[in-house]
Amino acid sequence: MLETVLDPPCARFGSNNVWVGPKARMFGDELNGRRNRIKSAVQHVIAELEAELRSTPNKVSRAMASGMASWS
Known about the structure:
The protein is mostly helical. The chain has helices at about 5-15, 20-55, 60-70. The protein is rod-shaped.
């Protein structure tokens, strides 16, 4: 899942078995920041999609469906 794509690298990196030192801490902070931004963005996209789906009627008439073909 995209939301958790950086979890394994962050966990490995946070174990201090990968790279240590000031530059490593800076990189780790950046990696964790990116992970948090990805999670937030994915949650936002999912919420937007769910809201759009909730606002879409379950059924439409044949005429309405035919008219939707010109939307793309």
